[in-house]
What we know:
Elements (H helix, E strand, L loop, with lengths): L6 H12 L2 E5 L3 H6 L6 H15 L5 E4 L1 H5 L2 H18 L2 E8 L3 H12 L9 E4 L9 H10 L2 E7 L6 H4 L9 H12 L1 H5 L7 E5 L6 H5 L10 E3 L9 H8 L6 E5 L1 H4 L5 H19 L2
Parallel strand pairs: 1-2, 1-8, 2-3, 3-4, 4-5, 5-6, 6-7, 7-8
Helix pairs in contact: 3-5, 3-14, 6-7, 12-14
The chain binds the ligand O=c1ccn([C@@H]2O[C@H](COP(=O)(O)O)[C@@H](O)[C@H]2O)c(=O)[nH]1.
The ligand O=c1ccn([C@@H]2O[C@H](COP(=O)(O)O)[C@@H](O)[C@H]2O)c(=O)[nH]1 binds next to strand 8 and helix 13.
Amino acid sequence: xxxxxxxxxxxxxxxxxxxxxxxxxxxxxxxxxxxxxxxxxxxxxxxxxxxxxxxxxxxxxxxxxxxxxxxxxxxxxxxxxxxxxxxxxxxxxxxxxxxxxxxxxxxxxxxxxxxxxxxxxxxxxxxxxxxxxxxxxxxxxxxxxxxxxxxxxxxxxxxxxxxxxxxxxxxxxxxxxxxxxxxxxxxxxxxxxxxxxxxxxxxxxxxxxxxxxxxxxxxxxxxxxxxxxxxxxxxxxxxxxxxxxxxxxxxxxxxxxxxxxxxxxxxxxxxxxxxxxxxxxxxxxxxx
Length: 288
Ligand SMILES: O=c1ccn([C@@H]2O[C@H](COP(=O)(O)O)[C@@H](O)[C@H]2O)c(=O)[nH]1
């Protein structure tokens, strides 16, 4: 058992304190240029540290997108480690958006990288892909539970191409998305029975997916875990879409915006204003 409170409880407290908004740290090349930074490991490191400096302690969570750091090789990965350390020092929860998924024995190694105490790449939670079978994620779910961390499993992603996999229906008549949500609910059942607001096993459900939950028979409320909702801002979703997609599950939602906030940089004041506006909109859509 971990010495820290479970991730779901820590996230619920952070959402109550700061509003249901997560800001993504996605150092796209055009943003690096706009911020006067180089497209190399030093540039993405500085970008990430500036975001942490501006928003640490002001938003519920930060979500570094691992791909933008990994494209610079080992120095980029070291930059991601530094950004995670800075967020940890600022007391802000981090979700490493790495979307890992593999056979169980390899999943154990991914779990050690992203969820083990003392790993420099560990945040408070990591995004995972269930398309090698939800059960293959067990090593990560187990380690997260032992270390007080969380996982977010892809369920209904914000991109339109996700339909062909996630809306597919199995021989039992259950859609892939509904099956993933039901298996996450099983992992959160202990949290529900202990009266915790949310378990530590979350889903990724895009704010852009319209009525996909209903269409696929996916019961989001029953998951009893956090619902990470990318697609806010640059991908076109706003207050109306958030309210429509999540309905009665809306209090579990952590809206996520990257470019929508980051394009207001590099000045800290601009980032703070943009994040505050996005948090107000998310609050109005999800907590009203
Ligand atoms: O379904 C998904 C899952 C993850 N993402 C990630 O979120 C951000 C979105 O960035 P924006 O600039 O706010 O569009 C990015 O890191 C994606 O990889 C997603 O968009 N959809």
